[in-house]
Amino acid sequence: DEDDDDFDLFGSDDEEEKAAQWLQKKKTKKPSVWVAKSNIILDVKPWDDEIDMAEVEKMVRSIEHDGLLWGASKLVPLAYGIKKLQISCVVEDDKVGTDFLEEAILAYEDLIQSVDVAAFNKV
Length: 123
Known about the structure:
Elements: H1 2-6, H2 13-28, E1 37-46, H3 53-61, E2 68-79, E3 82-92, H4 98-106, E4 112-122
Antiparallel strand pairs: 1-3, 1-4, 2-3
């Protein structure tokens, strides 16, 4: 019955050592930093149909801030020949908010009548 003594029901010392090493590695790994981000689509409306919307888009995209990344845009017919600029951006929630975006865009008051949040989604 000496063969029975060699049989270990709970695994060998090597397996226990490997498991302990794995746990130690897992504990010493730096925790991943999760950054809350949002995708925002803004409707930027001009005063009238005489406004150069390419210039409006250029001005909007010129707004730079840490945590702000401009995305795709398109012109959407509004009424009476007026088109609004619909532009998307991805923002880090702790660094950029909709209030900041609206105020920065409305600073171009001679071209832009209003800014509305068309969509707001967490990423």
